[in-house]
Amino acid sequence: QRQLVESGGGLVQPGGSLRLSCVASGFNLDYYTIGWFRQVPGKEREGVACSVSSDGSTYYADYVQGRFFISRNNAANTVFLQMNSLKPEDTAVYYCAADPTGWGLRPNEYEYWGQGIQVTVSS
Prior knowledge:
By secondary structure, this protein is an all-beta fold.
């Protein structure tokens, strides 16, 4: 059974940092593209960043470019999202997702999803 479990969320002040982790079980992340997404109530889920397995490339949404960074620890079957210079508008439930052939920031390209974790940016 393929599972993704996020951790590392919480409450942080504006300008602060958090690192989210996504641990996979039941499959090897080496062969999957991993995406991070976020969603706030009443809005559609939006892409944040992705790491493509086939060529190692990474992509970021404009609204996080230069502040968020995606990375992998393949030995630990884990993907990270380092979030710096956080803003109140970054508040959302964050999800990691995996797909063997996906490569973009559209949620419908991903087959496997974690349960999500809350990130709140507030003073």
